[in-house]
Amino acid sequence: MSKIPLSLNGSGARAWFSVAALGAAQKQDVAPASPIMGYLAVGCGLLGIFTIGFVFMPLGLIFSIGALFRGQSVWGVVGLMLAVAGFVTSPKLWLIVGISAFYVMFELDEVLRPVFEFLRLIRIKDNTTEV
């Protein structure tokens, strides 16, 4: 059909690109996608360390797992390490883990049962299930 001159410099060295006929199958090179998931993993991991850890640490963990599944292994591993560091440096997350372990270890279901029954009496529902 027509020829389009392609050149990266202004000299006379030119390459010619032939436009294929309409309807003919063309193989197009796809530009490599930027590792957005990896960027988000590292960014949320850093934010989890230096700002609100209980918000950004889980996001960094989710994004780093997503980056690992998308083939961005370096970004995913770095984001995973930063998410773990965000967990280690977050006092609120340690408090949540500690209270949960305390609750399970000392079987506080029996101790807190009157509180849950009182809350049911005043029409406040809890999200616990009885076993």
Structural overview:
The structure is a single chain. The protein has 131 residues and is mainly alpha-helical. The chain has a domain at 36-89. The chain is built from five helices and two strands. It has helices at residues 36-50, 53-69, 73-88, 91-105, 109-121, and strands spanning 3-6, 15-18. The protein has a two-stranded antiparallel ribbon with strand order 1-2. Helix 1 (36-50) runs antiparallel to helix 2, helix 1 (36-50) packs parallel to helix 3 (73-88) and helix 2 (53-69) packs antiparallel against helix 3. The longest helix has 17 residues, at 53-69. The radius of gyration is 28 Å and the shape is elongated. The protein starts with a strand and ends in a 10-residue tail after the last helix. The model has no long low-confidence stretch (mean pLDDT 79).
Cα end-to-end separation: 77 Å
Low-confidence stretches: none
Describe the strand arrangement of the main beta sheet, using strand numbers: 1-2
Q: Total number of helical segments?
A: 5
Our estimate of the beta-strand percent is: 5-15%
Helix content: 55-70%
Query: Which of globular, elongated, flat, extended, rod-shaped describes the shape?
Result: elongated
The strand count comes to 2
Question: Sheet with the most strands?
Answer: 2 strands, antiparallel
Helix-strand makeup class: mainly alpha
**Helix and strand element order:** EEHHHHH
* Average pLDDT level: 79
How many whole angstroms does the radius of gyration measure? 28 Å
Question: Which descriptors would you attach to this protein?
Answer:
131 residues; mainly alpha; two-stranded antiparallel ribbon; 5 helices; 58% helix; elongated
